[in-house]
Design a protein that fits this description.
The structure holds 2 protein chains of 2 kinds.
Chain A (H helix, E strand, L loop, with lengths): L1 H25 L1 E9 L19 H8 L4 E3 L4 E15 L3 E15 L5 E10 L9 E3 L2
Chain B lengths: L1 H19 L25 H8 L4 E3 L4 E9 L3 E4 L13 E7 L5 E8 L2
């Protein structure tokens, strides 16, 4: 009985060491994830935005203060960042691969939504259109 | 005797581990669950809002729409967060959006969870 327990223990240890060896030999481990970066805006839902129908007032009531807006207030930008993968490289430590997004909303002269577009970028945050200024 | 030593060692190890997990809570001065209670649709004026909450973080459509950045202290409630150039959204949890009519009376409001 004791012997069988010992065997199971050794087997478990051997499997653990083998797992570690695989990671060690591969040198790199990439874990796909999908969560918002700490401090990022989240839950920006553009599905209910309707060009020609949604007003600026409705958009702000829905999404809050924009991260960027143009001087003439005719373009708003909502930015957020998601962590898409966590990587570990042998001897180099760990890091994260991020994807940045900006929801850019444009308005017509009557303050109704005229266009919505989603800008995406791997790595550095999306650089919104030059005319958009960052708040505050 | 040996067992007692083992128990003590385990207890010491656990203490060491738990010490690493210790969290501290700091209260934010000025935080209050009453901060936004004065807002009353159809009654509160823009002037009252400006007097109570100060300068908004943003204003649109000739001050028809005002926004404020709001943080939350779990123990004491909401607090205003002043825009900071280097970390504009630090400590912000909500965006308070206030919409006024042509006479400056509050018509619509929403506390949007943004972070």
């Amino acid at each position: 009985m004791i012997s069988s327990h010992r065997h199971a223990g050794w087997r478990f240890l051997a499997l653990g060491l083998a797992g570690l060896a695989v990671v060690w030999l591969a040198g790199c481990l990439v874990i796909p994830v999908n969560h918002y970066q700490t401090g990022s805006r989240h839950k920006v839902n553009a599905k209910s935005l309707q060009p020609g129908v949604t007003t600026k007032e409705e958009l702000v009531l829905m999404l809050g203060e924009p991260d960027f807006y143009s001087e003439d207030e005719q373009r708003f930008g909502y930015a957020w960042t998601k962590v898409k993968a966590v990587w570990v490289v042998q001897g180099m430590g760990r890091g994260e691969s991020e994807r940045s997004y900006v929801l850019e909303a444009s308005f017509d002269a009557s303050n109704r939504l005229s266009q919505v577009r989603l800008l995406k970028n791997w790595g550095d945050p999306v650089n919104p259109t030059r005319e958009l200024k960052s708040t505050p | 005797m040996k067992r007692n030593h083992l128990n003590l060692s385990i207890a010491a190890l656990l203490l060491g581990l738990l010490a690493g997990c210790a969290t501290t809570t700091t209260t934010v001065p000025g935080a209050s669950s009453e901060l936004l209670k004065f807002l009353n649709i159809g009654h509160t004026t823009r002037e009252e809002v400006l007097l109570k909450l100060g300068k908004p973080s943003a204003a649109f459509e000739m001050e028809k729409i005002l926004t404020y950045r709001i943080g939350e202290d779990p123990a004491r409630g909401f607090h205003l967060v002043s825009p900071n150039v280097n970390q504009p959204w630090k400590s912000v949890r909500y965006s308070l959006v206030l919409v006024f009519d042509a006479t400056g009376v509050l018509q619509r409001q929403n506390l949007v969870r943004v972070r």
